[in-house]
Fold:
Amino acid sequence: MYLDIVTPEAKTFSDEIDSVVLPGYNGELGILKAHSPLVTTLEPGELRYTKDGAEHSLAVGNGIVEISNDNVSVLTDMAIDEDDIDAKAVEEALERARKELSETEVAEDAEEIEKSIMQALAQLEVQRRRKAAGH
Structure:
């Protein structure tokens, strides 16, 4: 099975994998080879994939997932490898966003700030799981 992850900036990941678990609206969605065709939404959270028996993680944002012919295509506004997450910088950004959210009165601004908060929390969750696993 082949996994492609694309953000507005670049193709973040493209490789043959064994399986993938995606964060969806109703919880995690596990994908194995020969999965039925599907188009669904991606929620901010942890995307985990296995390749040659090893599990890897990325923090992902909102997006769309398309599954067809043993190809999983993920179009997302954020995809950060577990090794590239700077927990201290993310925590600082999270605090700034929470402060900004408490001070905003415009609904559209609040939606954008909440999106930033969800993406920061996704990164921190990936980082915490990594530390718990002893990486």
Q: What stands out?
A: The longest helix spans residues 107-132. Residues 84-132 form one domain. The mean pLDDT is 88.
